[in-house]
Amino acid sequence: MPREREQADARPAADRSWQDGFPPVAEHRIRVNGMTYHVETAGDGPPLLLLHGFTGSADAWRPLLPAFARRYTTVAVDLPGHGRTDAPADPKRYRTEAAADDLCRMMDRLSIGRAAVLGYSMGGRLALSLAMLAPERVAALVLESASPGLATDGERKARAEQDEALARRIERDGIEAFVDDWENLPLFASVKRLPAEVRDRLRRVRLANRPHGLAASLRGMGTGVQPSWWDRLPDLALPVQLITGELDGKFCGIAERMMAALPDARLAVVPDAGHLVHVEKPELFATIVMNFLEPMLETLHGTEES
Question: Considering the entire predicted model, what is its pTM?
């Protein structure tokens, strides 16, 4: 298949110097496989691909750029149906396999051969899927509050039914009513302790999404319809950093099972944090990520295409 051309050139920040501790961010519109993605890059160094969770966007990673962009070129992507990336009606276009192929083609456009990949929750599931489907494109994985999918057909069927019900509710009630409910899930209880400005920023990111995009994402990229990678974990021959919050018992248990199955994995359980570790404990989260990647820095420097 011939390569498609990038839809638009990068749009750099007006000032190329760091301001108030934050790096300039370049915005890209990249068209792959008929879908236009919004992508943001910052910093200088080996590539670090950043994949947000459900209801998020590339903007969710902005508070961490001062830490990451001093050593890496961060590549933050609005995933299908989220942020400013296209939100097609067909859920098949959101399937994990399609999204992983899109990421590979996107890396081609950006002249990236391999990248370290950091994914949170839904983005972590996609990051792991990318490593399984295209291991030659992934140098290392950081998986925050993520899973390899569901192990049995019964679990997948039940979750797909739950996600379909949620998708219909989003379409019926609209984005604000959905976000009100989403923020009050027990999974995010510890977020309520954060300063108002942090909670407000998180809410703005969520509200910037479109109801039909989130609904289609649930139907096409939800845990109930993605491949299960549990049986393939022992074959994943690359370094993996697992991160969970100690208050998130479900995902701590999942991470422990993953670490036992993966040949080269380590697990960091962050004290007094829940599911959103990178929001609740950003400094410690960044330290864990940087310490994990630091020994591989020289290797990662060879991941850009010449």
Answer: 0.93
